[in-house]
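Example for tutorial group B:
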């Protein structure tokens, strides 16, 4: 495998690196709410400079470049120690693949720019790993002479619902169909009457999660994504993007953590002990193995292949690397991380969930066994 930059890619990388040297803010606020706002502001700054939506068509606010440019962006953000960009690749790609021309034209530019924020309504109190068991329903009816859906149900662990303008909602539109066949995706404005949000404070001290309740919320039938009953296949494709570390910027995030740990060793705040150097070497090896796997996946994307079940391998490697980095940071920095409960603590406790969100590690291994390796269920 040859992952050397082409002449055009090398020119783009050099230009981006020079821009980051001038514009990158190296520090994120310790307060979780301020940190989320700072990452959104950074996303908008990158967009204004032309570095967001690199692989998206120009007519929808992108730049029409191959997917490898997205990976170069993540590489350079990590190298510069810059904040990561918001993880919107899975939602934006789902809109691009399944949206009508009008939906893509109206919604993609705001999503890519970061000025219009989205949340993803998937998990429910009784439908987590078994997502197809979801009970939130959207019943078709007519109101004031127009086709609408009446939405009722609850979603939980919905990231950024408290600040979102739109919800990418997975709901049941046909209660008589088999459970995988009766699901659809609705694009729901969060200011719709009947939609309420209750923030959940998580172990990382922030209110990123929320419970979202839909109480007879009326949503236009024009807001359905794809066809009625196509929701499961849309969700499967979206999750393939969400499980790809390049699409959710995880390589960049881990690279930033590694740079910070290396800087602490150089400054003397972490002992330059052989055992510590070994741990950093192991962390680097975890990051490189993840990067190379992601590059292989991106090579398939370059050839026009959409992400598929093999993305579960990337997700498993990402979760392993994230938790290794969290443990390494805790071991090297010692009790101070626990006592201060600052940014490093947040990174550590968040890493503990890496084997749960986006599909548990057990689910990912089943996907690899059955859909990648072709092993029998029994």
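The residue assignment follows.
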């Amino acid at each position: 495998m040859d992952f050397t930059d082409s002449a055009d890619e090398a020119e783009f990388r050099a230009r981006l690196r020079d821009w980051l040297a001038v514009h990158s803010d190296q520090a994120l606020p310790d307060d979780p709410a301020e940190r989320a706002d700072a990452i959104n502001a950074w996303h908008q700054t990158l967009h204004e400079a032309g570095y967001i939506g690199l692989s998206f068509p120009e007519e929808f606010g992108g730049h029409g470049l191959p997917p490898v440019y997205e990976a170069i962006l993540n590489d350079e953000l990590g190298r510069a120690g810059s904040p990561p960009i918001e993880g919107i690749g899975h939602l934006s790609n789902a809109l691009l693949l399944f949206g009508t021309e009008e939906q893509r034209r109206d919604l993609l530019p705001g999503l890519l720019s970061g000025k219009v924020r989205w949340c993803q309504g998937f998990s429910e109190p009784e439908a987590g790993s078994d997502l197809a068991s979801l009970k939130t329903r959207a019943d078709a009816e007519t109101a004031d002479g127009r086709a609408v859906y009446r939405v009722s149900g609850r979603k939980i662990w919905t990231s950024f619902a408290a600040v979102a303008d739109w919800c990418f909602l997975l709901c049941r539109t046909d209660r008589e169909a088999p459970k995988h066949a009766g699901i659809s995706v609705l694009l729901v404005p969060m200011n719709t009457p009947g939609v309420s949000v209750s923030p959940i404070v998580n172990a990382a001290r922030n209110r990123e999660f929320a419970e979202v309740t839909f109480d007879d919320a009326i949503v236009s039938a024009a807001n359905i994504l794809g066809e009625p009953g196509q929701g499961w296949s849309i969700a499967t494709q979206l999750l393939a993007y969400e499980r790809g570390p390049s699409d959710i910027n995880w390589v960049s995030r881990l690279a930033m953590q590694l740079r910070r740990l290396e800087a602490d060793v150089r400054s003397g705040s972490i002992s330059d002990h052989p055992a510590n150097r070994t741990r950093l070497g192991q962390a680097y090896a975890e990051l490189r193995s993840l990067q190379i796997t992601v590059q292989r996946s991106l090579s398939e994307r370059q050839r026009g292949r959409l992400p598929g079940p093999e993305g579960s391998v990337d997700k498993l490697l990402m979760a392993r690397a994230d938790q290794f980095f969290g443990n390494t940071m805790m071991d090297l920095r010692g009790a101070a991380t626990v006592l201060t409960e600052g940014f490093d603590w947040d990174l550590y406790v968040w890493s503990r969930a890496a084997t749960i969100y986006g599909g548990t590690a057990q689910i990912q291994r089943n996907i690899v066994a059955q859909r990648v390796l072709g092993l029998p269920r029994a």
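The chain has a mean pLDDT of 90. Compare this with the pattern of hydrophobic and polar residues in the output above.
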